[in-house]
Amino acid sequence: MAAQEDRSAPRHPLTIAATLRPSGATGFKTVVTDLSLSGFAAQALTNLHAGTLCWLTLPGLSSLQAEVVWNDGNTIGCAFATLLNPAVLQSVVDRCS
């Protein structure tokens, strides 16, 4: 189960190429546009429904398990299963924003 989404967590707008793999499916290239301790937003041309488990792979990091929380047709919002370590988040933001 995904970590409870904390919409008050500071969100970092960025543009970072990543891979997203839905449970039971092949991964696809995406662009993460927003990152926080609790989740992310990313472009998704594939229709992923709320509740779908997925794994996000950012450059230099192991895959991060998440759950789709919302989908507006072109963008998805996901909550990480485990909150990101603040130092890891800051490292990604420093490299990619």
UniProtKB/TrEMBL annotation:
Residues in PilZ domain copies: 6-86
SUPFAM superfamilies per the UniProt record, alphabetical: PilZ domain-like
Molecular function (Gene Ontology), one example: cyclic-di-GMP binding
One Pfam family from the record: PilZ
Gene3D superfamilies tied to this protein: predicted glycosyltransferase like domains
UniProt superkingdom: Bacteria
Protein name as annotated: PilZ domain-containing protein
